[in-house]
Amino acid sequence: MNIAINCRHLLSNKLEGFGNYTLEICKRICKSHPEHEFYLFFDRPFSEEYIFSNNVHAVVVGPVTRHPILNVIWGSISLKRALAKYNIDLFWSPDGICNLRTKTPQIITIHDLNFEHNPKDLPWFVRNYYRIYYPRFAKKAEHIISVSEYSKNDIIKTYDLPEEKVSPIYNGACDHFSLVNLDEKNEIRSKYAEARPFFVFVGSIHPRKNVERLLQAFSLYHKKYSEYHLVIVGSNMWRNQSIHIPAEIEEFVTFTGHVNSSDLAKIMGSSFALVYPPYFEGFGIPLVEAMKSGIPIVSSNKTCLPEIAGNAAIYFDPFNVEEMASQMSRINEDSDLRKELVENGKERVKDFSWDKTSEETWLVLEKFLRK
């Protein structure tokens, strides 16, 4: 049968949240099911590395979706035509977009609904697109995949859906993430942190990621522990964003921008701890990456984050800068706690793997493929 997958976020050398999610699941599903033909829908020229197997057909479906209006055209017109042209039996969209008029069965993944709860976090034209179309996508799709129990319950409640319409399937983490030896740690510290031990944050520079408060908390923490550095890995979500760095810590903070997954794994494994302050998340893949890397976690206590990190983290209120700084200090002062969190993480990370994610995702797709 012919299965189409929305692969608009598979951007070579620019893979981030949706892109990594699409890549890890898509390549496993295509390779594991040679009995089906897979049509990967891109919105721009693609890399040959995404032709995972002989049963993969890459198709460019324009226009390039760099603006919500182009998203509407792609989803409303171009997608419908492509589904008909290639005689698609089932369509899966890892970023939640689907066509509202086709009769082709569609499965979508909705990662979170931050745009519903914190609309001011997004430019007005982006939030209006999400808030107009995603409720319709949720109603139209045959089934929805969420990435946590928290997100499942939020989607059901917000869009008034039956519980059986949403399946929670956890994410995994790339195999690059593992323990880092001392020589590599020293090399990474020299490259990114002026040879200092460092906390790391990983994520796009987006209001909900709470980077401004993280910088304020690190400024408080730094008054007591002046030998530490903060490395922030990620690029701006919106072009016109600016982040204020308190002058007293300016030389102790590094913004790396986007880095590839192998470099990110080295940075994560070389850090003293992950500090993760978002006030809204659907899953939080850096938490799993930190567990795989054998480092302790200091995390926000909001939305899905305690569900994912469990006993591998200590928590703070992301709106309380003093509490965030205090928990960072606690990690410094209690070596037994650090060891406990790392050991807990080694056990907890067994619950998360892309192989498991892909297998469970396929079971959902297969159910509707049979229909």
Summary keywords:
six-stranded parallel beta sheet, single chain, 371 residues, 13 helices, 2 domains, alpha/beta, Rossmann fold, globular, seven-stranded parallel beta sheet, 42% helix
Describe this structure in words.
The model has no long low-confidence stretch (mean pLDDT 96). The protein is globular and about 65 Å long. The chain has helices spanning 17-32, 68-85, 114-117, 124-140, 149-159, 182-192, 211-222, 261-270, 285-293, 305-309, 321-333, 335-348, 354-370, and strands at 2-6, 37-42, 56-60, 90-93, 106-109, 143-146, 166-168, 198-202, 229-233, 253-257, 273-276, 297-300, 313-316. The protein is α/β, with parallel strands linked by helices and 371 residues long. Helix 6 (182-192) crosses helix 8 (261-270). It folds into two domains: 2-172 and 353-370, Glycogen Phosphorylase B (Rossmann fold, 3-Layer(aba) Sandwich); 182-351, Rossmann fold (3-Layer(aba) Sandwich).
What share of residues is helical? 40-55%
Output the helix-strand order.
EHEEHEEHHEHEHEHEEHEHEHEHHH
> Helical stretch count?
13
The quaternary organization reads as single chain
| Proportion of strand residues | 15-25%
CATH architect. name of the largest domain: 3-Layer(aba) Sandwich
| Sheet/helix structural class | alpha/beta
Q: Provide the CATH top-level class of the largest domain.
A: Alpha Beta
Largest sheet: 7 strands, parallel
Tell the overall outline: globular
How many beta strands in the DSSP annotation? 13
By CATH, the topology of the largest domain is: Rossmann fold
Which parts are unreliable, with pLDDT below 50 for 5 consecutive residues or more? none
The average pLDDT is: 96
